[in-house]
Design brief:
The chain has 317 residues and is an alpha/beta fold. It contains 8 helices and 11 strands. The chain has an 8-stranded parallel beta barrel, surrounded by 4 helices. A two-stranded parallel ribbon has the order 6-8. Strand 10, helix 8 and strand 11 form a beta-alpha-beta unit. This is Lipoprotein.
Length: 317
């Protein structure tokens, strides 16, 4: 059971309840049985099938870190409040390139398009779990934008009263692509019978590790490059028992700290939430173009890179 939390919502969280995405069913991935090799005879010769080669990340390589720094924009269709990756995706992609440039001083930037794919609702969705999943056309549109940027797509998951693993498995046809990972949002993971907005969601390290194990299996089965598995965390109580997370070769785990407000407040939240993080979990930091600037100027890339630990993923909303 996830621990219950008091009714407490961030500014962005409150917006999510009124800016959902439409849902359509995603077709289950088609399975195919391997064809048998033809038998060589005196009259014919056969050619052995080529040895599979491991697929690579955009730009080459199979490991996310330490060869890259990730810089991303979040968004969802027709929902500007969820981030700049909405509306004209080509223009947003160009803005992402410009924003990312200052972060490429010590290693190449791998752009991230974070589509908030499964979105919480204030009423029960089709499965009764207060969430609605994106349709194929939407995921393809955002994957095309990520590929145009030379980056990867992260599918954001707000499971409502459902569990993370089945919500992630819903997108398996996309997760078998070499440039698609996940971004989990425990703030919106509530217990059955609860309503988003009435309580603050949470999860456990064990639940997150279940997703990690699943992704690692996809990597092994498909000879894929590492998958990014990011989880957002607004305060320390959102994830309990993080020591249950296991370091898996096929998964690059990132904790993105989502504090809102003035720079001093954001830095304090970052230090508190990152304390005690398993050493293999990479640091992430989130900036809000609107909410943060109500309390002062937006932190510069130089200020972000001066944080300890230094963020390896920087997300703008």
């Amino acid at each position: 059971m996830r621990p219950r939390r008091p009714a407490l919502l961030s500014v962005t969280a409150a917006v999510l309840l009124v800016t959902g995405c439409g849902a359509e069913s995603v077709a289950a991935p088609a399975s195919s049985a391997p064809s048998s090799e033809p038998t060589a005879t005196a009259a014919e010769t056969t050619t052995a099938p080529p040895t599979p080669t491991q697929q690579e990340l955009p730009g080459g390589g199979t490991q996310v870190f330490p060869g890259h720094r990730l810089v991303g924009f979040s968004g969802a269709p027709s929902s500007p409040a969820l981030g700049p990756m909405t509306g004209d995706l080509a223009a947003a992609t160009e803005q992402l390139r410009q924003q990312s440039a200052a972060y490429g001083t010590d290693r190449p930037v791998l752009p991230i398009v974070e589509l908030i794919a499964t979105v919480v609702q204030s009423v029960p969705g089709p499965n009764g779990d207060y969430s609605v999943a994106a349709d194929d056309a939407t995921v393809q549109q955002y994957l095309d934008a990520a590929r145009a940027a030379g980056g990867i797509l992260l599918l954001g998951i707000q499971p409502g009263s459902g569990d993370f693993l089945p919500a992630v498995q819903y997108y398996e046809k996309w997760l078998t692509e070499p440039d698609v990972g996940v971004a989990l949002d425990p703030e919106w993971a509530i217990e059955p019978g609860e309503v988003p907005g009435d309580v603050f969601g949470s999860t456990t390290g064990a639940e997150l590790d279940g997703v990690s194990a699943y992704l690692d299996g996809l990597v092994t089965a498909g000879d894929l490059p590492q998958k990014v598995m990011l989880y957002h965390q607004l305060h320390a109580d959102i994830v309990s028992g993080q020591e249950a997370l296991v370091d898996r070769p096929g998964v690059a785990v990132v904790k993105s700290v989502d504090g809102i407000g003035a720079a001093a407040d954001k830095i304090g939240t970052y230090q508190r939430v990152m304390a005690g993080t398993p050493p293999f979990v990479h640091a992430g930091f989130k900036l809000f173009y609107e909410e943060d600037t109500r309390s002062g100027p937006l932190m510069t890339p130089q200020e972000v890179l001066a944080l300890v630990p230094q963020p390896e993923y920087v997300l703008y909303e």
